[in-house]
Amino acid sequence: MVEESDLKQWKDAGHVARRTLEGIKGEIVAGKEWNDVIDSAERFIRRHGGQAAFPVTISVNDMAAHYTTNSQLSPPDGWERDMVFEKGDLVKLDVGVHIKGALGDNAMTLEVGNGGNHTDQIRAAKDARDAAVEKMHPGTPWHQVGAAAEQVAKDAGFLPISNLCGHKMERWSLHDGVSIPMYACGANNPGFKGSVEEGGVYAVEPFNTTGKSGLVENVDPHNSSNILRVTGNVNIRKALAKKKLKPLGARLAHYIEERYSTLPFAERWAFPLLEKPFPEEDEESLKRKWGQLVKKLTSIRFLEVYAALRDQDGGNVGQFEHTVYVTEGGPEILTVS
How many Cα neighbours within 13 Å face the side chain of 33? Predict the structure, then answer.
């Protein structure tokens, strides 16, 4: 729970997150590279007093979530084009900000070129988010929040994505163990017991799709998002003492943990760490060494990696998201400009 006295940093993080979305959306134009927009958004966050709570993600058309570019700028598996926006693309921009671990998380969907090909889907995703937010009063059962989001999507002719959820947040923790259904899960669904809690901070983010199943799937390989996270479950000194890590691996692990805590980080942020201990190595050699380091750190469960997500039917995906603080009188949206 977030105390009233602690709320200013959460509001500031939400404010920066919203300003970033609004400030960067105009850069998503035909001919612009995905990475240029991601880099611009992450620099915008820092200029305005925040730090990225996770790598800025860009998800285009049937890509739903969890994709950021890597240091080699290699495209996600199955993507047949350059990573350049084209007129008519349906783009999800997802931005998270933290200020000393207090979090703001928001997302929006837009059509490149504003040609009107996706107007109904974009509006439905935004309205579903707003309908779910309106239900965020203390004591409201989670299934009612999800049902509100689904009703808007279906009324507009789209399906809600049922295997992506909103989430409760705590300081330094984006997903704090409570998931919010964004579809009509039913009153007796064992995965969504309980209700909205006063003092809680929640990311409310319904997704919709033109696909037929309402499901997303992982993009191969298992680390296709180019996003990693320190689990917080492994003590580096103990791993070194037990010879699970060599001194260099332990040093790099310590730096990663110190820099990012347990918030997600991008491969492209951490990859340059290898340039200092291996100044003479070429790019391919550094890439192999990075792969070996990540493999070792995931094998001992110091790190976890994420897969990018796409609609399993190839349908176009829409998404909007707000961060909400629940007061005695109802929801207060923190991601406002």
Answer: 9
